[in-house]
Amino acid sequence: MTSLLSESRGRSQPHRQRPERRQHRRHDLQQQTISVRRCGTQSHEGEELGQVVDLSCGGLRIRTGPCGLRPDQQVRIRLELPTYAGISPFVDTSGPSLRPRSDWVGWMAVSRVEQLDENQCEVAGRLMDMDELDRGMLGLYLSTQPVAE
Predict the structure, then answer these.
(1) Helix, strand or coil for residue 32?
(2) Per-residue pLDDT for 7 more than 60?
(3) Which stretches does DSSP call E strand in 43-102?
(4) Span 116-139, average pLDDT
């Protein structure tokens, strides 16, 4: 037994990769300077919440100034993405026929707030009430974007 232990200590163990815990792949949109706006409250209506760092079909990470958000809080947001390669990120289902749409309004459940310095923090959260058609179109749209590391 001791010989096995001493042998195993001398050998370098291969680096084991952790299994991916995310349900959706994140895409790096930081270079596009896409802003996220608050909506739904009169005191913050249309106020810029921050800039998109990365985005997936299920969540969002933004960089913002001091925002007063905390984990487990929900905030209503408006996310507007430009059409890319002829693909609109969302679908308007309110009319008699489906139409492309570039914005989505819904709830983000804040899961993490990380203070970067005294003037900036990153906020990560899940996109809560997105319907499956919009989530699918957003996935198609994001498949044309670079993957976040």
Answers:
(1) helix
(2) no
(3) 48-55, 59-64, 74-80, 90-92, 99-101
(4) 92
pLDDT on residue 84: 84
As a whole number, mean pLDDT of residues 4-18 equals 49
Is the domain covering 24-142 a CATH 3.90.780.10 domain? no
User: Nearest-5° angle of CA 147, CA 19, CA 28?
Assistant: 15
Joined tokens for residue 130: 């997105």
**pLDDT score for 28:** 56
The two tokens of residue 45 are: 């209506």
Task: Identify whether the C-beta of residue 16 lies closer than 8 Å to the C-beta of residue 85.
Answer: no
Which one, of 123, 114, 27, 117, lies nearest residue 75 by Cα?
123
Q: What pTM value is reported for the model? A: 0.74
Residue 118's contacts (CB-CB under 8 Å, 6 or more residues apart) are: none
Distance (Å, rounded) from C-alpha 116 to C-alpha 66? 10
